[in-house]
Write a structure and sequence with these properties.
Number of strands: 10
Order of helices and strands: EHEHEEHEHEEHHEEE
Organism: Streptomonospora litoralis
Protein name: Glycosyltransferase
Strand order of the largest sheet: 2-1-3-7-5
Helix content: 25-40%
CATH topology: Spore Coat Polysaccharide Biosynthesis Protein SpsA, Chain A
Shape: globular
Number of helices: 6
Structural class: alpha/beta
Radius of gyration: 16 Å
CATH architecture: Alpha-Beta Complex
Distance between the termini: 36 Å
Keywords: Plasmid
Strand content: 15-25%
Oligomer: single chain
Amino acid sequence: MKPRVSVAIMAHPDRSRFIPELVDRLDRPSNVVWDRWGDRWDTGRRAMLAYSPTATHHLVVQDDAVVCRDLVAGVERALRHVPAEPGAPTPLCLYTGRVKRFRAAVRRHVGSRRVSWLAMPSIYWGVGVVMPTGLIPDLVAWGDEHPETANYDSRMGQWLQRQGITVWYPWPSLVDHRHSPSLVPGRSSAASRHAYRFVGANASALRQPWSPDVAHIPHWKD
């Protein structure tokens, strides 16, 4: 089946100034899902559930994302090249961070190799996540029962790990963070909140060469 991707933006009122530009940059109409009371899971779950019934996958982009050109069309193309087993679920995480411990993991498993994909057992960042729509109801139902994990990306990642579902990370990343501080108390500074490698805001996702070359990186935790 040809991938079809719907889009939602996970938005916080403190970042409302970013939303018009982000909506304009995306190459597909998007639902903007606003934070209601400072609950990351509540906002994230509603953004995930805002998928189109005709979509095979659903992209949730956070409000501080910097996206490349033709992102949604490029994701649909990339999904046709994911080196997964036929019929396997294909969640994507469009951002790979560069915090210190992860830099070491990338150097160890990627090095100077030319790869198109990083394969990992979890979602470690939520700035841009693409989920097969068939997984979303069960994922959200499980997440609703696990409030001990505040971050919506971490909660989704835990569910995927329990299911043994591989998460595919395009390399280089197709989204980045704006240079702005996290809204999560205690998170790292704005200077460290950038992709390890970003394809670039002016690059087109449709022009990325997707090879089957993949680096498998085992479970990593901040």
